[in-house]
Specification:
about 10% strand; about 675 residues; globular; seven-stranded mixed beta sheet; single chain; alpha/beta
């Protein structure tokens, strides 16, 4: 097998395995989907350690990676693990019971396990890097990464289960790990794949959506009928029954229709799910319902099993989309807009605290909903909000946006159940009680700080203690692991590439800003997210090709372009971008996002091309990306826009500490550090 082909396959394995671990672990460990960024950080650490270990002259093939994968999968499959959610400063929608070890124990252990698994593919990629010209190796690595993203996107689109994912992983491992160890490889991987095959035996009611593992089962509804219980990632999520039964058992579902001054004709339901809220709207004789649901598989289940056949009604139009994105694209006016328990249980990939619905409850989003109300219309939302401060934050958001207090049906005994209904004007709502803050209410979340579920004045600088503790332990373990993998002998060589380390830190923050920006402009759907990550890789690949094929400006000038593009992204307000028509918004968003990415990666490519120790240089850059993933939590204190300022400071520091002497000259002056 040629080295370029081997590198492409190894990079495909690396990216595909990383995505598989993020999806599978989040479904297997209760509440881990709220912390999926820590798995990403573990992946970066593992890959970086693999690059450092590849510098050792005498080493065996990375069978330890397969052993770690087998142990990780086996342990999580056999023993239930839950990330303890017993925190008042951060709200997690989940079952009421709390189990499992403390979060500061669970997350570091999972982080280290993922790092051990990903170090093996990192070694395989690093072995190829040392045998190719620098930019050629980087180029083939990016191509393999794009293939990995495309393959996993196809799996998500088709609803393929983990058995399919890890069969592909096993196949790539067998191809790449050759020689006398192939028998060991096949044995370990066969045992791992068997663990995914076993649950499929006699398994019913389980399927995978692009966001969750969904488990469904039927039971009696207490009225001689049948209802469906729906769990996602092991957590109760939805209950599918008739509209009459739901209103009888939980009358608050009927509250929005009792608090409006005229019967609604045109209704928008965001978070339509399996259709119960749609059934209730139809039972009130509405003329038309636009039902928006982000998860296509849950929507399909509702079409097939809703007892009222709500989605078969000709008065219903279904949209698979993010609720905020739908509001930004439609010009339609509604008599009632309803946010029907749109509480996701997962993060947007690549963002530390951005959930699928985070941009749906910002002050700007509620303003957008208000602008879509017809004269005399009303807006409503309801949920079991868990904490009174969250009820007050949402009440304050509605009061601030509409200019008057909303109607409120609240039941603190029922884990802060609250139903808000607010008319376009005070005359458009009929209240028995209205929301009133007890003291100073929490400020509304905004598009720049969409952290609805994080309490104010918590932790250090607004970063919850649970995150700080986990990040602190992860940083400590990372330093120890890097010291063990790199050893004293590589320390001086690693120091040569301190600027590449900072470039990795800054680029991770830049990527996070772009992921969250596109989520705001175009929605938090899995497809938008996949396209953004693929777009970032394409932009990086384009930067590499430009550097390979053309004479590029000197580093000083490229840094000038980079700082200029960061300043442009800072100066252009998100509200202006959102006001543009969709085609213009797409063009502007691409320019703002990918101009600094192109400039940053031309800088990296030029610096990487001149390196004497390409494996160490690339590994240090990956370890910097891991630190950038930790630093991303600073957005909880500063907001996402200020990440651009932090990026600029990091890039400036990288420029200032870039070695002024030739990399090759420094290597000759320190021959003991040189690596072939």
């Amino acid at each position: 097998m040629s080295i370029p082909v081997r590198l492409v396959l190894a990079s495909t394995l690396m990216l595909f395995l990383e995505l598989s671990l993020i999806r599978w672990s989040g479904a297997q460990v209760v509440h881990l989907s709220y912390f999926s960024n820590f798995i990403l950080l573990g992946s970066f650490l593992g890959i970086g350690l693999g690059f450092l270990r590849a510098n050792r002259s005498k080493r065996r093939q990375p069978f330890y990676s397969l052993v770690a994968l087998l142990a990780f999968v086996g342990f999580l499959s056999r023993f239930p693990v839950a990330v303890n959610r017993d925190q008042e400063s951060v709200i997690y929608f989940t079952s009421l019971s709390t189990s499992g070890p403390p979060i500061w124990v669970t997350l570091p252990v999972i982080f280290l396990a993922v790092a051990a698994i990903m170090a093996g593919p990192g070694e395989l990629v690093a072995d190829c890097f040392s045998q190719l010209p620098r930019l050629d190796a980087y180029r083939f690595d990016l191509i393999g990464s794009l293939i990995g993203i495309a393959a996993f996107t196809i799996c998500a689109f088709t609803g393929a289960p983990p058995l399919v994912w890890f069969l592909l992983v096993a196949t790539l491992f067998v191809v790449l790990l050759s020689g006398a160890g192939r028998v060991v490889t096949i044995t370990l991987l066969a045992a791992t794949v068997a663990m995914f095959a076993y649950p499929l035996i006699n398994a019913t009611g389980v399927f995978w959506s692009p966001y969750y593992r969904v488990t469904t089962f039927a039971q009696s509804d207490g009225n001689n009928g049948t209802e469906w219980q729906i769990y996602v990632n092991g957590i109760p999520h939805q209950r599918l029954t008739t509209a009459a039964t739901r209103i009888e058992q939980e009358p608050f579902y009927d509250e929005p229709y009792r608090r409006v001054t005229k019967p609604p004709e045109q209704v928008l339901i965001v978070g339509a799910g399996t259709g119960t809220d749609v059934s209730i709207a139809l039972s009130h004789g509405v003329a038309h319902v636009d039902a928006v649901e982000i998860d296509p598989r849950l929507l399909r289940f509702g079409k097939e099993h809703n007892p009222d056949r709500a989605y078969d009604d000709p008065r219903v139009t279904v949209y698979v989309n993010d609720g905020r994105a739908f509001l930004e694209r439609t010009d339609k006016k509604y008599d009632l807009i309803l946010f029907a328990l749109p509480d996701s249980l997962t993060l947007v990939s690549g963002a530390s605290a951005l959930r699928l619905e985070s941009y749906l409850f910002t002050e700007e989003a509620i303003q957008s909903a208000r602008e879509h109300l017809a004269p005399g219309g009303a807006f409503s939302m309801y949920n079991y909000y868990r904490e009174q401060w969250l009820v007050d934050r949402l009440g304050n958001t509605l009061a601030t946006t509409f200019g008057h207090s909303p109607c409120l049906l609240s039941s603190p005994e029922a884990i802060s159940l609250a139903v808000f209904v607010v008319g376009a004007t005070p005359a458009d709502q009929r209240c028995e009680t209205t929301w009133a803050a007890n003291g100073t209410p929490p400020k509304p979340s905004t598009d720049d700080r969409p952290f609805l579920y994080v309490a104010e004045d918590t932790g250090l600088l607004g970063i919850p203690t649970i995150y700080l503790a986990a990040i602190g332990l992860i940083m400590l373990f990372s330093v120890l692991a890097i010291g063990l993998a790199g050893g004293v002998g590589q320390a001086r060589t690693m120091w040569l590439y301190r600027d590449l380390f900072l470039l990795g830190v800054a680029f991770m923050l830049l990527e996070t800003k772009n992921v969250t920006g596109f989520a705001l402009y175009f929605g938090t759907t899995w497809l938008v997210n996949a396209l953004v990550f693929a777009g970032v890789l394409v932009a990086v690949l384009a930067a590499v090709e430009i550097t390979r094929r053309f004479r590029t400006p000197p580093l000083r000038l490229m840094y000038f372009v980079l700082f200029g593009s960061l300043a442009l992204a800072w100066l252009v307000p998100a509200s202006w971008v959102l006001s543009l028509p969709f085609p213009a918004r797409l063009v502007v968003a691409i320019v703002l996002a990918f101009l600094p990415i192109m400039a940053a990666n031309i800088i990296f490519a030029k610096r990487f091309e001149s390196s004497v120790h390409p494996v160490t240089a690339f590994g240090i850059n990956l370890l910097g990306a891991m630190i950038g993933g930790c630093l991303e939590y600073a957005a909880l204190a500063t907001g996402y826009r200020w990440l651009l300022v932090i990026c600029a400071c990091l890039y400036l520091a990288a420029y200032l500490i870039t070695p002024r002497r030739s990399d090759r000259r420094m290597a000759l002056e320190s021959p003991a550090d040189a690596v072939s």
